[in-house]
């Protein structure tokens, strides 16, 4: 484990006693806002502060009275899974005027509120910052008007502001993802997947219009996630003559046997001269030039609706807790900040720096400086655009480089949603780099049997949205068949391997490295992309497939809890997958609002079980009607799901009854989530670019020879970046007996789940966000680097 940090602070050292925190949602609603409100309320109450709801946004602050209501622990129960914002949101013209802000200040002082947590877009946050800057002057005016006592100016001398960005457009600079974006992508992809079936039946072209008046993030990422033929966004208008190019692309796609076309248009799409490009214009163009049967679907407010995704619930919960920590630590000289995540790490950024950069994007677009606008949007947006261009638009054969290298792609281990998106990406990037791409069926079992075939660009069309593994995957390791695999490598002249898989893929690479001493066929570049629902691969914080599994768990838990609605008090015991890795149980528990989650990494005994039962019994008597307990399948060989179910049933008699549910393989099934499609696509593209680089470096005297440690790597996400790590160096970080990494970042989220479930616990805040500045000029990065 890591050595103790002398700067480490524990949560009990931070007190909110005597402080009053108010939370409001402003501007457009976004799924996940309720999770943020819940986290602010519960964390605020946990530290001893008074917490208030401000209903109807700034309008409620100006109107005062019943709009400012003290919150209790129970008042935020059962809101985690609800879309929109239950405390209401409204756009307020009055707050834009000095008189309106004066009324708002008076209403806050009456309640003793000097800490504001604002959830909204850049307009709402800009208004909050102006309010903060005027605060002392507003109090002076209130004293002069006789509305407050003179000593109130000293007592409430500073107003502290922390913002969280709630916007489905993901249009706020400085953050990777805003609250609501992932859920909106879920709505879009659900529609696209449904439309694809009817489009194929009738050989139709569909033009989908998605939200994004000034930001094309939703259009771009949904196009990347569904493999759309064309996308139109405001930040990067198409070159003049785009109409002919688009029609040629659609026609070429049909000529290769595809029965449908998908075009995605952001509502704010324009051409290079600023003329709007509407979905209707695109439809008419396709009908006129190609005669294709074409339909338009405008998604509209569907994108704002529905339940929040697992990602948005976790993001909002973490940000809500981080906002309270920021308010506790703030001083009169601390600038107003926004809290967010970069990678999987919390960050705090000066609010106005972010707002100014967001406004710069619009100025760049207005000035037709589109390349600059894309760069200002941030690394994530830039990488999405590059990767889309790389995968969607096939270069003519005459323009492709000729490498004469053969690269094989295979899946190893259990299937995981998003594997097919990763394979598609690897194949198309490989072809673009001039390689011959080969697909291996059924992992290493298929490899030694010779189930290897060349795969072309069109062969992987439509793979992005498919669940499972279309190549076929097995858990078979190569050691037993290493001689036959070497023979197949030689017969097919395979110069590099790209493996998409879980822990078995990691073990396979270690075995192949060992075999290099005997078989030179394995002295080639080899890279692994982690894909497993268990998220147990060393060297990577996230794996392809884990987000889809989390969404399956979260959705199922929502339904299970709802099944007890209107009945007597009930506790559900849910068993999740993951082997010995407790990621799904812990993070799924945070997303679903679980009361406890039992995992192998955090040993527990009968006393802990008894304490959990007593804690839940007490909560059942006073407030909640339904309880949720998650158990990782291998957390303890004696305290089984049946045992825990029987214990809760017996000890809860007279207060609640219990039910159990084993989720099983439904966690591995289904269409991949937008996150997994996007992550799989980008990480695999980066892996293939690494393969190309290594092939060039290791090609000597007419052949590839790579036997150094750094020629066999795992590409994993570490905190904020994607990193290539030699698999040999990851051995020391791995618990091979239990097939888990020795250190796992998500264990720091467990106290968060406990706090939100009303347990007293220590919360290590050494990893909480520190105030950083928005980075404007960055070194140029590789085409498919990932900022999640």
Q: What is the 3D shape?
A: globular
Question: Percent range for helical residues?
Answer: 25-40%
- Number of beta strands: 27
Biggest pleated sheet: 8 strands, mixed
Compact overview of the structure:
The protein is of the alpha/beta class. 39% of the residues lie in helices and 16% in strands.
Task: Describe what this molecule looks like in 3D.
With 788 residues, this protein is an alpha/beta fold. 39% of the residues lie in helices and 16% in strands. The protein contains 23 helices and 27 strands. The strands form 6 sheets. Strands 12, 13, 14, 15, 16, 17, 24 and 25 form an 8-stranded mixed beta sheet that branches. Strands 3-2-1-4-5-10-11 form a 7-stranded mixed beta sheet, sandwiched between helices. Strand 12 (406-412), helix 14 (419-432) and strand 13 form a beta-alpha-beta unit. Helix 19 runs parallel beside helix 23 (750-756) and helix 20 crosses helix 21 (641-651). The longest helix has 25 residues, at 674-698. It is globular. The two termini are 26 Å apart. The relative contact order is 0.11. Residues 1-11 and 777-788 have low confidence and may be disordered. Its EC number is 2.7.1.11. Substrate binds at residues 167-169, 204, 211-213, 267, 295, 301-304. Mg(2+) binds at residue 122. Homo- and heterotetramers. Keywords: Acetylation, Allosteric enzyme, ATP-binding, Cytoplasm, Glycolysis, Glycoprotein, Kinase, Magnesium, Metal-binding, Nucleotide-binding, Phosphoprotein, Transferase.
Could you list some keywords that capture this structure?
788 residues; alpha/beta; eight-stranded mixed sheet; seven-stranded mixed sheet; globular; disordered C terminus; nucleotide-binding; 6-phosphofructokinase activity; transferase; phosphoprotein
């Amino acid at each position: 484990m890591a050595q103790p940090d002398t700067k480490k602070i524990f949560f009990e050292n931070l007190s909110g006693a005597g402080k009053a925190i108010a939370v409001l949602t402003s501007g457009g609603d976004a799924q996940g806002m309720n999770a943020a409100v819940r986290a602010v309320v519960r964390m605020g109450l946990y530290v001893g502060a008074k917490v208030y709801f401000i209903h109807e946004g700034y309008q409620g602050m100006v109107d005062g009275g019943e709009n400012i209501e003290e919150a209790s622990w129970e008042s935020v129960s059962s809101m985690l899974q609800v879309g929109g914002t239950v405390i209401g949101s409204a756009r307020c013209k009055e707050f834009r005027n000095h008189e309106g802000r004066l009324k708002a200040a008076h209403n806050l002082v009456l309640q003793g509120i000097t800490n504001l947590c604002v959830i909204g877009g850049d307009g709402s946050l800009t208004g909050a910052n102006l309010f903060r800057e005027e605060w002392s002057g507003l109090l002076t005016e209130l004293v002069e008007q006789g509305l407050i006592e003179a000593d109130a100016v000293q007592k409430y001398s500073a107003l502290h502001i922390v913002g969280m960005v709630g916007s489905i457009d993901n249009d706020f600079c400085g953050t990777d993802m805003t609250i609501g974006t992932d859920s909106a992508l879920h709505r879009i992809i659900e529609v696209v997947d449904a439309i694809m079936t009817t489009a194929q039946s009738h050989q139709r072209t569909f033009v989908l219009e998605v939200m994004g008046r000034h930001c094309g993030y939703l259009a771009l990422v949904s196009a990347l996630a569904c493999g759309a033929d064309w996308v139109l966004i405001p930040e990067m208008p198409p070159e003049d003559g785009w109409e002919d190019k688009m029609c040629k692309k659609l026609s070429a796609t049909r000529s290769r046997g595809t029965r449908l076309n998908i075009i995605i248009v952001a509502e704010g799409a324009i051409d290079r001269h600023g003329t709007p490009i509407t979905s209707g214009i695109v439809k008419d163009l396709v009908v006129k030039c190609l005669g294709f049967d074409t339909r338009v679907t405008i998604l509209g407010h569907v994108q704002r609706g529905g339940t929040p995704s697992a990602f948005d619930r976790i993001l909002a919960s973490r940000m809500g807790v981080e906002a309270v920590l920021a308010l506790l630590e703030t001083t009169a000289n601390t600038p107003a900040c926004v809290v967010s995540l970069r990678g999987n790490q919390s960050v705090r950024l000066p609010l106005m720096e972010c707002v100014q950069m967001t406004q710069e994007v619009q100025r760049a677009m207005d000035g037709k400086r589109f390349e600059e606008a894309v760069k200002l949007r941030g690394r994530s947006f830039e990488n999405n655009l590059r990767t889309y261009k790389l995968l969607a638009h096939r270069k003519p054969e005459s323009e492709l480089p000729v490498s004469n290298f053969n690269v094989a792609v295979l899946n190893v281990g259990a299937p995981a949603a998003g594997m097919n998106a990763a394979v598609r990406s690897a194949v198309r990037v490989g072809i673009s780099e001039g390689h011959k791409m080969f697909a291996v069926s059924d992992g290493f079992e298929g490899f030694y049997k010779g189930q290897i075939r060349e795969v072309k660009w069109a062969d992987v069309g439509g793979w992005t949205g498919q669940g499972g593994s279309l190549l076929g995957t097995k858990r078979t390791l190569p050691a037993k068949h290493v001689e036959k695999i070497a023979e197949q490598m030689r017969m097919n002249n395979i110069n590099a391997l790209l493996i998409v898989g879980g822990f078995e893929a990691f073990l396979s690479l270690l075995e192949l490295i060992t075999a290099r001493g005997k078989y030179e066929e394995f002295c080639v570049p080899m890279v692994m992309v982690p894909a497993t629902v268990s998220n147990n691969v060393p060297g990577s914080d996230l794996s392809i497939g884990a987000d889809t599994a989390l969404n399956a768990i979260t959705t199922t838990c929502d339904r299970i809890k709802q099944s007890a609605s209107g009945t007597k008090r009930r506790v559900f015991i849910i068993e999740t997958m993951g082997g010995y890795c407790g990621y799904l149980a812990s993070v799924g528990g945070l997303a679903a609002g679980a009361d406890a989650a039992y995992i192998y990494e955090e040993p527990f005994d009968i006393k802990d079980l008894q304490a959990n039962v007593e804690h839940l019994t007490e909560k059942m008597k006073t407030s909640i009607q339904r309880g949720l307990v998650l158990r990782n399948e291998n957390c303890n060989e004696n305290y089984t799901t049946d045992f825990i179910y029987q214990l809760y049933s017996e000890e809860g008699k007279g207060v609640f009854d219990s039910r159990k549910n084993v989720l099983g393989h439904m966690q591995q099934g289904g269409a991949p989530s937008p996150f997994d499609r996007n992550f799989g696509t980008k990480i695999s593209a980066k892996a293939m670019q690494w393969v190309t680089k290594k092939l060039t470096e290791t090609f000597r005297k007419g052949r590839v020879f790579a036997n150094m440690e750094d020629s066999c790597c795992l590409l994993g996400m570490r905190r904020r970046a994607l990193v290539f790590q030699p698999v040999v160096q990851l051995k020391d970080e791995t618990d091979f007996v239990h097939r888990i990494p020795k250190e796992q970042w998500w264990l720091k989220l467990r106290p968060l789940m406990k706090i939100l479930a009303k347990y007293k616990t220590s919360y290590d805040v050494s990893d909480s966000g520190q105030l950083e500045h928005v980075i404007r000029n960055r070194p140029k990065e590789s085409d498919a680097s990932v900022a999640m």
